[in-house]
Design brief:
5 strands, 6 helices, globular, alpha/beta, Hypothetical Protein Ychn, Chain: A, 5-stranded parallel sheet
Length: about 140
Amino acid sequence: METDKKGLSIIFHSGSYDRVYHGFSIVLVALALGRETRCFFTYWAFQYLVKGKAVFQLNEEGQTHRKLLEEHMKKGHIQNISELLTQAKSLDAKFYVCTNSMGLLNISRDELVNEVDKSMGLTTFLAETGQDQILFI
């Protein structure tokens, strides 16, 4: 199977655990296929990159499946986001945070996990993505 090596850039906006989790699934598959992958965290997804903050937030749709998700997490069938972040970083994913979201949520660079490469605005992120395929989650 021949794959297009065009890069993949994902804008993580939703803070719902299931959406962030599936976004990371896409990131890991893209990396396994040899695609350069960039992730931009903004607004409610940003909380997953704050040190020591355990997040398991679900939107309305996810709430209807909360019990199922929690059961699978306890059994080890679903990894937590910090584990997925570490895996993706080990495969050379790039992680960026939105400077506007940092200001809005009053979060400093020192409060972010080590996997974050840098902070930037959306304009800079889009300029850096070039011809990447862009997904919004």
